[in-house]
Amino acid sequence: VRDPRTGTYRTMSLDGGLARPDWSQAGSASLEPSPEFPMMASSGLDPVTGAPTLVLGGPANPPRYEASLKVATVIVALDKSATGVNSKNHLTEVASQHLALMANVAAIYENQLGIRLLVQELILTPDSDDYDDIPYDDNGSTLEEFQEWVQRWRRAATYGQTVAIRFGDGLSGGIIGIAYQDALHTRDGVGVMKAGFGWALTCHEMAHVFGSSHSLGGIMNAQYTTEERSFFRDIEG
Fold this sequence. Notes:
single chain; five-stranded mixed beta sheet
């Protein structure tokens, strides 16, 4: 069992009185909370240290905390280049990676902005002739192509998502992400990103859709790979 507070692993064994050679002899058992292993929420990555788990205590007033949150839903789509081969094990791995990425994005939005971000749908497009790719062009035209794809297949007026994002091809010239600004719950509520750049880029592009412009420093800094001051470079190395 992994202790989320320290990252260490401990081996657990059953009491001899609980072990039985056959299911017909099985009895009920009760699990009691241990003061040495309290139940605490985890927010994912610590943005300061990069540690895989930042353990938090529960809110002082859970009902009031829950009521204070604004809920936003996101559709996450991957094109063929981001999804990869059509095999069960590979698709499971890709889905797990992107759900973990979105969990870290959700932690940032909830802890810092009071927005509970929920993944409404994760769409994978296996690299197989059996599937049509999500269309793309180049940079701004790729964003327009995805906007039209969402309008056709996942229209916000029907599916109700707050925002839709896409990972994959169609960006060049040093551009790794692009999104419409201030476009929640509209046909323009979309963003596109290259795959493999982590949660910081996803937070950045989605924030444009939520209404944020660029800043000097911080997660909304416009630069990622240049010599300009960059929050991305500071926290990701």
